[in-house]
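Ticket reopened. Same input as before:
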Amino acid sequence: TQLLEQSPQFLSIQEGENLTVYCNSSSVFSSLQWYRQEPGEGPVLLVTVVTGGEVKKLKRLTFQFGDARKDSSLHITAAQPGDTGLYLCAGVWTNAGKSTFGDGTTLTVKP
Amino acid sequence: EAGVAQSPRYKIIEKRQSVAFWCNPISGHATLYWYQQILGQGPKLLIQFQNNGVVDDSQLPKDRFSAERLKGVDSTLKIQPAKLEDSAVYLCASSSRRAGTSGGYRTDTQYFGPGTRLTVL
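Engineering reply: fixed in the latest deploy. New output:
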């Protein structure tokens, strides 16, 4: 079973602070996805990274895929209360497109 | 474009009872997924359909769980009989990935419904 470990499990910060959350595995993935899930809703895809070393930016969010395609990070600059939610990473590791999700980082941004 | 629809949104049952969940994917999406998300954990894939065929059901507890997608559109997930540990959110997702995609690998976007929160007492 391919396992994804996310850290930290919980993160509570003040508005305006920067933060980084991590997604690590001993397995190599074909691609890796980051989702955000709000209470009472399903996860929503933020980004897919495919190439080792790839960096993608989405406004204040920066996603990086490790060179060996085993790990990834999500950096948020100047966090806002609207960034509050559960951030999930999912490794995609077969040609059938099967995903394995981590257990997520719960982010709370206080105004 | 309408999103993935799920019903009911909430269900409370007693252990050993039966329950069924319904999912209507995004129109035209060939692939449909059912996930179980226990509180504090990430979604765990239960079953994946490609049109009306099962692609992966390796993590589906087949002694109590069943799922079908008879016409390749809507899907139902059933639990019979329910256990306390089945309390979770059941998420349905769909994607436009089609079988027989030639050459290479493609990561398709999965669109999730809002889920059904099941409480087993």
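The first strand of chain A starts at residue 5 and ends at 7. Residues 1 and 24 of chain A are 14 Å apart (CA to CA). Please confirm and we'll close it.
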